[in-house]
Amino acid sequence: MRRFISDFLLPIVRGGPASVGRPLGPTAVARIVAHVEQAEASSGADADALAQLAACRLAIASRFLPAAAAPRLDEASVRLGAALHDLLALGHPELGGPGVLRRQTRIANVAKQLAALGPPRSAEEAVARHSLLSRLPDIVRVDRTVHFWLGRQAFVGRTPPRRVTALPALRRVRIESTSRSWLREIGIPAVGRGAFLALNVASPLGEALDPLRLDPPVTWGRMFPVLRFPRLARVVAGNALAMGIDRAGDALSDALYRFVAFHDPAYQFQASPEVVGFAIRFIAHLVWLDVLFGASSQRPDAQDLVDRSLEPGTDLAVIMTAAASTARALVWPRDVPEGGDPADAFRARLDALARRAQAAGLPRYKTALTIMEIAAAPVTIPAISLT
Amino acid sequence: MLARIAPGQVRFNLPGLTADTRGVVSGRQLVARFAAIDRLVSFLRVLSAEQSLDDLQPGLRIVYARGATGTREAVVLMPVVSPALADVVAHAARLAGGQTFTGVGKHFVQYRDARAPLGYDVTGLADASGDLVLYGTEQIVPYRIDSELPLSKLLFRLSLVAAPSRGLGSGSPLGDGPLFITARRGLGPVLASYLHRAIVGVRSPDGGGLRASAALCETAAASAFGAPPSFWLFRVERLPVRMRGLVTRTPGLDVFIPVTDNAAVAAGYRHPIHLESCRGSFPADRLHLFSLRGVTEVVPLPALAAIEDVVRIRMPTTELQPDRAAPASRPDLSAPLRLEAGGRPPGPTVATLIPWNRLPWLRRVTYALPAPALTSCTVALLERGILVRGGESLQGIPFGTLYELAGPDVLVPVGTQFRPALSPQLLSERLGATQGTVVLFPGVGEQPLRIVRESLLPLEPQLLARVMPPAAEVVEPDAQPTLANAVEIENRPLGPMPLWGLERPTTR
Hints:
The complex is a heterodimer.
Chain A (H helix, E strand, L loop, with lengths): L1 H13 L1 E5 L5 H16 L3 H20 L10 H15 L10 H16 L7 H11 L5 E10 L2 E6 L17 E8 H5 L6 H10 L1 H5 L11 H8 L2 H14 L1 H16 L12 H21 L20 H13 L14 H20 L1 H14 L12
Antiparallel strand pairs in A: 2-3, 2-4
Chain B lengths: L1 E3 L13 E2 L5 E2 L2 E6 L2 H14 L10 E7 L4 E8 L3 H13 L3 E6 L2 E4 L9 E3 L9 E4 L4 E9 L2 H7 L3 E2 L16 E6 L3 H14 L9 E8 L11 E8 L3 H9 L3 E8 L2 E4 L2 E2 L16 E5 L2 E5 L6 E2 H4 L27 E4 L9 E4 L4 H10 L2 H6 L1 E4 L4 E4 L11 E7 L2 E4 L2 E4 L4 H8 L6 E3 L8 E3 L5 E2 H5 L23 E5 L17
Parallel strand pairs in B: 8-10, 17-19, 27-29
Antiparallel strand pairs in B: 1-9, 2-3, 4-6, 4-7, 5-6, 5-11, 7-8, 10-11, 12-18, 13-15, 13-16, 14-15, 14-21, 16-17, 19-20, 22-28, 23-25, 23-26, 24-25, 24-31, 26-27, 29-30
Helix pairs in contact in B: 1-2
């Protein structure tokens, strides 16, 4: 149990080499949970590992909730950690060979079963789960190829043993290392996709903070469980603004089309007028933030008619223009006055977005108008029901 | 009935008509006819604005005449002093809705107009009985004069109208000239002393220009058994702006603005007729005061005395010492120091004494005071209250008993002064206000207090004596974990049967 915490969970949170070994199942997870409870009650090396893990998770959680308490290594955390371990084990080189698909399927199903926790029920729970999985985009695998006088030997995600690299001058040892991102470059095997999506459902804050992820693409149905918490919604909005309103807005706008068209798997929140309206107002809120505080507010809007359809921001322009044309309440908060400098700046931004949409976004404009008509239905507060 | 005067015509049917150098025909008199008295007043107002009515004297007569139909009309007879005057009169009469005739004696023909630029002549004299026969373009009307209304009587009978307000910043409505102020009998001495103090208190070499004189006037008694009502009449020159509100808003005081040497109109009002052009209507031996209540005639013209001679001299309250020689001891020359309500303008407020029941007010004010005000203030906690003293002046605390400096570190209530008027330095020395000690005179007739320097404490520490935030918990920086950049997968050997014990997928 100690090796799982100190050699895997702690590096997953703190950084460093994370040991991926034999896959873990529910039985192993139950034993780990029981051992954790005993270790918390006593003192020793196990307790030190738990304390270090809690401190690292607290350092991450405090970025989102400054007053957050140190997350416990509860059953949900152990299950998420074990599910991630099993997903990483899918690419273990020793599982290759004949029957690899059958073995990977078996591991992926277990991982999916472990990750099937459902969305978090509170902002603190969401942040606690995210504190364990926040380093997912930072997981890398270093593949090393050792060239020596008789040939070469490859080590996938392993440090070559000393016997292989011994006498480097005599044996003319040369090591080639390639570091690749596990999430973006190596990717998750197709059999593990379901488990990974379940992991995202259980910890949606990571997906909300990474809207530019290509595969699997960001989904509104998985993000709503954290966007319904105002504190976390502000964090997500600020992160999107830091990424760039055009790129983040395009990703979220593109996800909106899939969400409304029911292309995404069915999750807790379905594409209803209230939910779609919330999504559109969230995107409009990003534009408001960019108008007020973003760096692009200092940049003069382009007035020429050069086709900028390949540049980021077109989908955002189409969504915003369609929303402003259909129902002003979708883009204009009720407590913001019509007069004043912020209102004038936002109107100028809407005009620029409209010019952009007209120049390069017409193919999707009709679809966007349809989405706005769905969203323009009377909205009740809160926009997203917690039940 | 009427014929237009032709150019070059020299013979006229109506007696008294002559042609001037322009060829315009007029007689020696003008007659203006008005159907109602208000039109007559309008005519006189317009005429008095352009022409002095005194130029029409003597000869200006206002009569009530009754025509052949029995209607009573107002008729004004004026001498033709000059041809230009006749045109002015005709223009004013036309504006007021009246008609102008010219002639002499009894017969008057209509004055020239646009249809007859040189005037009219009659074709023949009418054999009509009456005091006046007016030949108009449409009819000939004889008038019999019923009564005459002297101009002065008309001026006295007319009511004042409110003068239009000139708005803020356009100067005081009282103007900068002399004013007449009437005061009821009991207010006269008070006003006199007030004006006297204002004159004495101005320190400029010329006294600031404020001059005042007064007289006690009596009006005719309403009955033989009652005392004739009297009032004080003040003539004030260059009344300061700060005093104008007092004299205009105090009941019992009425302010009049002179329009002539012996006529004045109530401030804020105007006479319907420009009285400046009717000087001859006001006898020189009397003063006329026009107010809403009517006209007050002061007869004879009051002899105003300088205000300094009118102010009551206060007699000493103590009895004179008996005329006895005190053997062997020399008489004491020292005079007891007295604090009196002074007439000089108040100096800057430097301190205030706040009673203890007003302490919440002081607390509330300190929240609003800026830092420089707080740092410059000192306080002394006395039995009767809190003495707050500012630096050069006390700003921001408008309540309590305000004090000014009569000398270095000698505080007296604002608006009071010492008698005899000693030099400030001598005053401070004799009262012991040295080396930081402050002498406070709480009020007129009260015993002074000496406040030693140690009792005057800075205000800031007194306000914040109890602020002590708790100590904050310091977090050791070494306890914060450092997070490395990357998480590197380290695949461990799985050993034989790596999936042993792993649950198999359940078939759906």
